[in-house]
Amino acid sequence: MFILTTATKKIRSLTKRIRIVQGGTSASKTISILIYLIHLSQTDKTPKITSIVGESFPFLRRGAIRDFLNILKTQGYFKDGLWDITNSIYTFETGSKIEFFSVDQSEKVRGARRDRLFINEANNISFESFEELEVRTNDFIYLDFNPTNDFWAFQVERERTDTEKIILTYRDNEALQENIIKSIEQRRERTSWWKVYGEGQLGTIEGRIFTDWAIINQIPHEARLERYGLDFGYTNDPSSLVAIYYYNGGYIVDEILYATGMSNRQIATTILECEKKAMVVADSSEPKSIDEIRGFGVNIMGVEKKRGETKSNTFVKWSIGVVQNERISITSRSTNVLKDYRNYCWETDKDGHSMNVPAHEFSHGMDSVRYALVSIKKIGAPVPEYTQKPYEPASIFESMGYEPKDDELFQDNTKI
Fold it and tell me: pLDDT band at 138, cuts 50/70/90?
């Protein structure tokens, strides 16, 4: 279901070459930009090429590509024969094309020119990649991001005269469900989080717990699978399953599962379907789930929390120190766990002071990593010294009431 939102109207109002869309969580940044680009491609008088670019192709597949196809399919405009799934290019009846590729595809970044460009979650790509793409774009460029830190887009805005910026928040997305709005607003007291994700203002994710992980495209053939780590979730929280490999003195994290609504049987099936086998180490606070998954034939155990009870946070802080003390890499396809990694921070009180407890949000992927790694390290080993580190410097309008409805793209009573 789609309706015309304030976010969509604001995005369409931008006219300069570089169009910066800064915003908080659930502000409809990506979907609104996609809607406008679809609209343009469907109404072009001469064929145009639009490139939608992200940090990695798995990131695009789980985000912008999924949203793009969902928009077309929901409205009944998707045609199989127009979608080149191999090259991720959709060709409209006008002859215009929308293509998807990632910045790690260097031959495309430095390849042919395009008319329009959308860099999704621009804060996750380098300035060098932006420049390579920008000089090969004829018409205009959209950049969207959560303003977690001051990065190159702010410098571009300050130094160039062909830029304009809007700031969107969840309030600009009238289609947002009431339970999501309440969930966002319950975080008002978390000062640094609210500034970035609630108000869409430039800030920093203070007290970030893990930093300096390397992102790699694939797991080396010589890497040895050591463990799987599992954090349970269901309705609101996702279940997170990661594989931990040992390679060249460090560890590699690879996301296997990250989803809500997963039953223990579904989790067990996912594990059993993994080609490589290893012990699964799960949150020991759910012994019933562990027993049930074991009953399906999975080699699983609960993490040993001999360093103290969970409620005293002794084990949590010790296990964070264990992970902090290792050299960690993570695969680029681990998009959900990467997001957790970049946003996993200490809880703060209403005055912004650290409470020395990890915040629950963005903890799920990191918990699955902790469970696996502490089972590899000796429980009796000395506690590594832990120090907090600073944050490191993510036509369609007609029936929506925006234009005449001669050629409606959307069906009635739709929302975004």
Answer: very high
Residue 265 near residue 245 (C-beta atoms within 8 A): no
Digit-coded pLDDT (tens) for 353-385:
667 788 888 899 999 999 999 999 754 444 343
**Whole-angstrom distance, CA of residue 52 vs CA of residue 35:** 13
For residue 184, the surrounding DSSP H or E stretch is helix 178-185
CA–CA distances in Å: residue 41 to residues 29, 94, 169, 332, 400: 19, 7, 27, 30, 17
Residue 369, both tokens: 């990593």
- What Cα–Cα distance (Å) separates residue 264 from each residue in 221, 230, 298, 366, 405? 31, 11, 11, 20, 49
Burial of 385 from C-beta contacts in 10 A (0-12 / 13-18 / 19+): exposed
pTM: 0.72
pLDDT reading at 416 higher than 50: no
Q: How many Å apart are CA 348 and CA 346, to the nearest integer?
A: 6
Residue 12 CA to residue 402 CA, distance in Å, equals 10
Question: What's the rounded mean pLDDT across residues 214-225?
Answer: 93
CATH architecture of the region 214-376? 2-Layer Sandwich (3.30)
Q: 6-202+394-400 in CATH: which number?
A: 3.40.50.300
**Is the pLDDT confidence value at 399 over 60?**
no
95: helix, strand or coil: coil
User: Residue ranges of the domains in the chain?
Assistant: 6-202+394-400, 214-376
